[in-house]
Write a structure and sequence with these properties.
single chain, eight-stranded mixed β-sheet, four-stranded mixed β-sheet, 9 helices, 25% strand, binds N,N,N-trimethyl-histidine
Amino acid sequence: PVTGLRITRLLPEGFFADALREDVRRGLGAPPGRRWLPPKWFYDARGSELFEEITRLPEYYPTRAERSILRERAGGIAELTRARTLVELGSGSSEKTRLLLDALRRLGTLERYVAVDVSESALRGAGEALLREYPGLAVDAVVSDFTRRLRLPGAVAGPALVALLGGTIGNLLPAERAVFLREVRSLLRPGDALLLGTDLVKDPAVLVAAYDDAAGVTAEFNRNVLAVLNRELGGDFDPADFAHVAVWDAEREWIEMRLRARRVVTAKLRQVDLELGFADGEELRTEVSAKFRREGVEAELRAAGLRLGRWWTDAAGRFGLSLATP
Ligand code: AVJ
C-alpha cells in the first residue's frame, strides 16, 4: 500500500530555469511590438493562488460552466471509460477533478490518479489533500511541462482517462495544439480516452469581461509574470509600469492578454544579460486563450488521430467537454 505523495520530476535539474531563459530570450528578444511570453510562467505560487481567485470571480464563467457539465456527466464518463488510471494534465488545484474521482470510485474501477502540472506548489497542496480524502487511492504528482514534452512516470494501467480541463488547451497556439494532441494520441492505447475541456466562442463582451474583471484580479495575475521575471532572472521591472489589456481577436477567435507600458520603461534582466526598452504604450503579449466551436474541436482531434465520441456543453452553451478515443 502506498502512503505519502509521490512527487516525480521528469525534468532535469535546472530545466525550468533554462526554459524560462530561453523563452525570455526568444519572446522578449523579439522586435518591439512583437514581444511575447508563454503563459505558463504565470504559475508560481502567487500566480497559482491568483488563478484560483480568478475561478471564483463573477465574470470568469469557464470554471463554473465546466463544473456544471462534470456534475451532470461524471457518472456517464466513468461508465463509458471505466478508467483504472486518471491522468490529469495541468491539474492545478484538482478542484473539479474530485467529481471524476468520485464517479470512478463509485464505479470501483479507479486505482491511481496522476496529476501533472508545472506548479510544484499546486501539486503538493492538491496531492496531499487528495491522499487524505481518497484513502487507498495511489496519487502521483508529476512536475512537468506537458506543452513541451508529454511524458508520464512509468507504465499506466489501462483503461486510462487523460483529462485536460479548464480550457487550458486554448493557451497553445494552433500548431502547438496539433503537436500536443498527436502526443496525447501516441500515449493512448485501445480502450483509453481523452477528456478535453474547451471554452467556446461567444459574445466578445462576455469574453473580454472574463479576462478583465472589475476587481482587477486578472490584471494582478497578468502583472505577476513580471514579478516572476524579477525573482528568477534578476529583473528590475516595476509591475505598476504596465497596464493589463485583454482583447478579442475575432479572426483567430482567441483572447489575448497583454501588458501595455504606461510610460517609457527600461528594465534589466541581469541573469540573461538583457536590457529592454518599451515605448510608451508598447504591448507585450502574455497569453493567448483560444475559444472553440464543436466543428473545430472535432477537426483538430481527427487530425491527431482521435475520434470525438461525446460532446457535452453546459446549459448556456458556454463551455464544451469532449470525450475522444484513439
Ligand atoms: C487556466 C488557461 C484555462 O485561459 O482562461 C484565466 C488562464 N488567464 N484568466 C484561461 C486565465 C486569465 C485560463 N486557463
